[in-house]
Amino acid sequence: MTGQVEKSTQNHSKFVQYHFEFVQSLSKIIQNSCKVRSKFTKKHSKLNFASMTRSKTTLPNAISKLRYRIHQKDKGVIELTETKVSEFPAKDSYLNELSGSQKNLKNGQTGKVKGKYGKYGGQYVPEVLMPALEELEEGYERYKNDPEFLAELDHYLRDFAGRETPLYFARNLSKKYGSKIYLKREDLVHGGAHKLNNAIGQALLAKYMGKTRLIAETGAGQHGTATAMAGANLGFETVVYMGAKDVKRQQMNAYRMELMGTEVVPVETGSKTLKDAINEAFRDWVTNIENTHYLIGSVVGPHPYPVIVRDFQSVIGREVKKQILQKEGRMPDSIIACAGGGSNAMGIFYPFIEDKDVKLIAVEAGGKALKCTEKAALHSASLCAGEEGILHGARTKILQDKNGQILESESVSAGLDYSGVGPELAYLSDIGRVTARYATDDEALEAFHELSRHEGIIPALESSHALAYLKKASEAGELGEVVVVNLSGRGDKDLETVLSLRGGI
285 and which of 104, 266, 294, 473 could share a cystine (Cβ 3.0–4.6 Å)? Predict the structure, then answer.
């Protein structure tokens, strides 16, 4: 069905009301070409990238099943061409190699799945972003096996990030819980968290692709800090979007970014957290596609981002596999990681996907309780309590109300305070390869203090959720003899938050 904007307004008034300002912006910049590129006359389009959030319950249902292509006809008339999602498969050239025994939930096939993880994943974005995603995919495909690129990446991971990180035997914690508990010390990576693994990888990729500017979103500030570090080292202009609520929670990280020459932009819209920071970063990217790389910090977003981030973070799991064999001569019984978007979880899980005897446990933020009010969730547990929907360009599990509107999430940990989860992690949870669990704010805070007192290591509040599961699993007899916990970050950034919750020293 094709018609002019005026006709579309009559037939699809709700859609046009929602996207009218976007179409107006596009009409100013399309120049005698059907290929919509990237330059807007305004710094920010009015397009709300939360509109990339649709589910089977989104109003109206007919619109939720559609994507819109925007073309230019003679005399500058903009047309909206309505097309079913099924007619626009993800344009994937890089094959995601899942286990050969894992089934595609949609068609029952086994083996390699291209750009989709069963029913999850894909590219649910405005057409104006497709050239940038295709360019990124082509660039990654070109350089991911390039000897020069890999040698330079190895140099930065070793000499700048400080890899490899230790696999530390937590002797006192092991005595308490009756299992051999090892901590993968990602808190010792330069910057204090696992985030630099991905940030330096993507920044280097952007350099090889000829980009001069980096933008990023951040929640706890760890990804923003890692992006600032990579940007400063590689000579990029760098801008980081951070929810205003998170800026207050993580003032020291915001200052660290500014100290390294990064512009920190507080986001005052919506819930003022990570979800809204991502929206603003997408708006910036639309405006500046030609010279800018959007450095997404987790395994979320449209393809190829979940693949790229997972691959750069998989260095964690590869090291663990080598280290645990050296220390124990066997695979661990279980690997535990916290999960917000899921980058540290996928980073440690992915090399173990085919090791079926290794239990993979993703611990989400249970917040105050696994309940929802009319407008917000009291938690951030999308795997445990979410439903299928579309968020930030990918189909995955999200927190939403009965009308398909995104619920605000809640967690004491800024880095886990997100209303969705990576599509591959959602898929692995659905097929039972990853076990989803949650820890409440109080349980995470207890684990925060426990590790500090028993091992002399102060964990990030994000990592504390994974540590909190040790107690639950031990009580349920599910822990196993040899356990690896991904200590994804250090807790220096969280001391003010924890102190304020205690009411002082």
Answer: 294
Query: CB under 8 Å to 145, separation ≥6 — which residues?
Result: none
Whichever domain contains 413, its CATH number is 3.40.50.1100
Domain limits for position 205: 127-160+194-305
The verdict on 259 and 333 lying in the same domain is: no
Q: Where are the beta strands (DSSP E) in 85-205?
A: 116-117, 120-121, 167-169, 180-185
Query: What does the pLDDT look like over 295-312, one tens digit per residue?
Result: 999 999 999 999 999 999
C-alpha–C-alpha distance, residues 339 and 351, integer Å: 17
Task: Return all residues near 66 (Cβ < 8 A) that are at least 6 apart.
Answer: 82, 83, 84, 85
Residue type at position 52: M
The number of CA neighbours under 13 Å toward the Cβ of 84 is 2
Is 18:51 a contact under the CB 8 Å cutoff?
Answer: yes
Give the integer Cα–Cα distance in Å for 263 and 444.
32
Model confidence over 194-206: pLDDT tens digits?
Answer: 999 999 999 999 9
Q: Does one domain contain both 156 and 172?
A: no
| Beta bridge partners of residue 288, listed in sequence order | 39
Partners of 368 in beta bridges? none
Answer yes or no: do 352 and 274 share one domain: no
Q: What is the C-alpha to C-alpha distance for residues 412 and 195, in angstroms, rounded to an integer?
A: 19
Residues 435 and 448 in one domain: yes
Domain count, the chain: 2
pTM for the complete prediction? 0.78
More confident residue, 369 or 335: 335
Distance CA 230, CA 215 (A): 12
In this structure, are 394 and 300 located in the same domain?
no
